[in-house]
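Let's practice the habit of predicting before peeking. Look at the sequence and jot down your guess about where helices and strands might fall. Then scroll down.
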Amino acid sequence: MKAIIMAFGKEGSDVCGCVRDVLNGKKATLVCSGQENVGGRACFAAVADFGSEATNLKSLQEGLKAEGESQGLEIKVLRPCLFLAMHRVVPTALEPIT
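Done guessing? Here is the structure:
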């Protein structure tokens, strides 16, 4: 199973490293990732491949949320289809009305 991981922490913190450590414990592989500082927060996004290990998205979301909080992070997990749907709507909404 692949999922979109989004995480937020204090600006200047190593959100990428913390998320990578959390995901290593879940036997997940980061397919691609990136981190930027936005509005005083470090924002991280990645595609993670959990293979066949994680099949229950809800328990994965709850587990990563709890592990993230213990490291001072806010971690969210999205299904790829939801992420793609959001990004189809947003660019259209930002286009000027003619």
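How did you do? The chain has three helices and four strands.
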